[in-house]
Amino acid sequence: MVFDTTKLTYLRNGSSLSIDPDKCTGCGLCIDVCPHAVLDLVEHRAVASAPARCMECGACRMNCPSGAIAVTSGVGCVAAIVNGMMNKSSPSCGCGSKRSKAACS
Amino acid sequence: MTASSASCGCSPKIGRRDGSTPPDLAPRRASSHVGVADMLKGWGARWGFRRMDRQVEPGLYSLNDARSDSPVLVTSNYQLTFDAVRQELEGIGAWLLVLDTGGVNVWCAAGKGTFSTKELLERIESSRLTEFVNHRTLILPQLGATGVRARDVASTGWRVVWGPVLARDLPEFLRSGSKKTPAMRTIAFDLRDRMVLAPMELVHVVKWLPLFVAFAAMLAFPPGEEFAGRFLGNGMLLLGSLLLGSVVFPLLLPWLPFEAFGLKGLALGLAGNAILGILAHLWIGTPWHALVAAGLPATALVVWLAMNFTGCTTFTSQTGAALEVKVAVKPLLAATLAGIATALWRMAAG
Predict the structure, then answer these.
(1) pTM (whole model) above 0.80
(2) Is A63 in the B-facing interface, judged by CB distances under 8 Å?
(3) What is the 3-state secondary structure (H, E, C) of B158-176?
């Protein structure tokens, strides 16, 4: 069975991504950088057509020239969130320590 | 921080275009050859051996005798990344501008803010890149976009082109005049990607082994004729659950039901422990009530390991992971406490 893992999704309401259509100029830079093909140009405006694939990496927000994109980016890591809760800080994997996960390097 | 000069055959002194060679600032030579020492270090990195030592000296490298019109590729100073890029560019001359990300791969470093616009601009400056190339184009890995704002780099005179997500697509990308296919723009999470993470997951859980053996023994109380049967049955479920959570879960991930990893883990944990329980009963003769008592914490273990796998994927989000924690923390705690309470009760009763 062939399975296209570029289209794996997480929670359908698990993304904080939002695009302000008034600020969006339709330049398409966000589409160039998104690693999950979440965004599309529809009538000269960027829209999130596949939000369940969005992992909140923030590349779109970083590269949007008009500040039209908002997303709270951070690691999608339960351990980081639990870590943050226990240390009363923002989520942190403790990357750079012995505890960092396999995927951190 | 160790510079892996042995692996890239570093030798100094590449001449600048005007013929002079600046002291101490000349790019190092690199080749596409990845030798046995490099491969062993890379393999060791996958198992967690001295992972934080896997750094390459940042700066400018001339790969395969780069010339002034050769492309400039920007990358991180994590050894596995550097080696991957070098290897894929066999026979292709290119400049590698290696940023100091503290030995972390491009994507994580971009997210943490070390593969950044600031670091890139500083590295261009300190390596004196302008003296070695006759063009002003930089090719950055697409996953670096999380940390680098192309427009800000452009305002300094350097044009950013977003290269493919994976190093292995670089030759085709360069040959086609910097064109990307849809596959080059997206990140997958194929079987191989998932399973290379399993060794590290196992290494993380293996240190809890003595605790689980002790727990299996406590649940098997009172001592006597049937102790061995209960102990072995409990052990099968608990150790089996360790494997279910760290090896079977990544293997079957795309096919497991539900969106949340905790629920996927619950489905796998229940099914897996049911099978293990039947086998324990048939082979060892462990009574059903003992298997159910062990099965509850064992399933909770699979759920916990599954939820922790969110940190290893290429597609889970922080918002989603936070939702999972909110929903699962109470049931998981309850299951763990119930397991501990059962074990203490069995010891007291015995």
Answers:
(1) yes
(2) yes
(3) CEEEEECCCHHHHHHHHHC
